[in-house]
Design brief:
Layout (H helix, E strand, L loop, with lengths): L1 E2 L3 E8 L2 E8 L8 H7 L3 E6 L1 H7 L4 H6 L2 E6 L9 H13 L7 E6 L1 H13 L5 E6 L2 H7 L4 E6 L2 E8 L4 E5 L8 H17 L2 H15 L3 H21 L14 H10 L7 H17 L5 H14 L9 H10 L3 E2 L2 E2 L1 E6 L2 E5 L4 H13 L5
Parallel strand pairs: 3-10, 4-5, 4-6, 6-7, 7-10
Antiparallel strand pairs: 1-2, 2-3, 8-9, 11-12, 13-14
The structure holds glycine.
């Protein structure tokens, strides 16, 4: 990790090479020479959403000036972007506009734009370069890091995708100032997640600075984003294609994805669903080593970050969606929880009867022990 006056530079090494990751307040206003060189004289396709383009599109001016040609392609907001028909539309636009193997895709938006744009870049002409410019906290600390790309099918989220690492990632925490406060909270749950299973000092750092973080203070956010990214880099480098340890990052996601799916991705934001998913997994954790103090600390931080109420959900619907989750393996579902603060465990030996009973308890009162 190196720090310039206003930015923190990290690197993720992976089987296809390495990805430089820059985190900083205002980092996009002063793009690095490395980033400018990556755009230089290339045909650039900036995949973005109307809202992000309207709010922040002018921040790409310096990159645009360096490109040989530039086309902004807008995709729908939210999960609706992660659809095969949207991907097909983009591939066809790229072809019509003369996209070639040396063209470059920019993913300028939240996690959904990043997942889609990475998928489009990964599939176009068998794979072209892309750069992640994430504009939400959730994308900066999680979705844009680690090369996962995907679209959804009606049956399951992220069920069609590939590993395709970006050429570079730039996380400008100034972009977070325009986020809906609920979206900022949603991203913080991913920080809590990685703190609980891998980097426990992140939990206390978030606790200490929570009001500045929730106020979208770009200077306060930058070191937290960088620390969360560094933790994720270490996990991904050890297991780039999720054969094993990378599954730790799924803490809160098994029930989280099921909660999103039962409401057709409309009621809960991804991070909020993960917040509830972590509350569920803490119950499993308490029976398997996690002390009451550790569980209380995570639960209290989730409470302080703030979750919306959970609507009507049935155990049967959740169970059905859980079994369809892409993390389901033949041997049974792998559950992720902290066995101690900062020590994630992947456990495939929890029987369905316990899951069903725990889901019942959780839905009756998500916050109780
Ligand atoms: N978002 C989880 C992962 O990248 O593995």
């Amino acid at each position: 990790m190196t720090n310039s006056a206003s930015a923190i530079d990290l690197e993720l090494r992976h089987p296809a090479g390495s990805t430089p990751i820059r985190v900083g307040a205002g980092a996009l206003r002063e793009p690095s020479e490395e980033l400018l060189n990556a755009v230089d004289e290339r045909s650039v396709f900036a995949i973005t959403s109307p809202a992000v383009r309207g709010l922040h599109g002018t921040r790409l001016a310096e990159l645009e000036a360096r490109a040989a040609s530039w086309q902004a392609l807008e995709v729908p907001e939210g999960e609706r972007a992660k659809d095969l028909t949207v991907a097909e539309g983009l591939w066809r636009e790229l072809l019509r506009a003369g996209g070639k193997r040396d063209s470059l895709v920019l993913a300028f938006g939240g996690g959904t734009v990043g997942d889609l744009a990475g998928f489009v870049a990964g599939g176009f002409l068998r794979g072209i370069d892309y750069i992640q410019l994430p504009t939400t906290l959730l994308a900066q600390v999680d979705a844009a890091i680690g090369g996962k790309t995907a679209v959804n099918l009606p049956e399951a989220k992220n069920s069609v995708g590939l590993f395709h690492h970006p050429r570079a990632v730039l996380c400008d925490t100034e972009l977070l100032s325009t986020l809906d406060p609920a979206e900022l909270r949603s991203g913080l749950f991913e920080v809590v997640k990685i703190g609980a299973i891998y980097a426990p000092d992140l939990l206390s750092r978030v606790e200490e600075r929570l009001s500045s973080l929730l106020a979208a203070d770009a200077e306060a956010l930058a070191p937290i984003v960088a620390a969360a990214v560094q933790a994720k880099v270490e996990i991904v480098e050890a297991d780039p294609e999720e054969a094993d340890r990378r599954r730790l990052l799924n803490f809160g996601h098994t029930v989280g994805h099921a909660l999103e799916a039962v409401s057709d991705y409309r009621e809960l934001r991804h991070g909020e669903a993960v917040g509830y998913g972590m509350l569920f997994a803490l119950r499993l954790a308490r029976r398997r080593g996690l002390g009451a103090d550790g569980a209380d600390q995570v639960r209290e931080l989730i409470r302080r970050v703030g979750l919306p109420p959970l609507g009507e959900v049935s155990v049967a619907a959740l169970l059905q969606r859980t079994a369809r989750d892409k993390k389901a393996r033949q041997a049974g579902l792998a559950w992720v929880y902290p066995s101690a603060l900062g020590e994630g465990r992947i456990d495939s030996a929890i029987d369905l009867e316990e899951i069903e009973r725990t889901l019942r308890e959780f839905l009756a009162d998500p916050w109780s022990e």
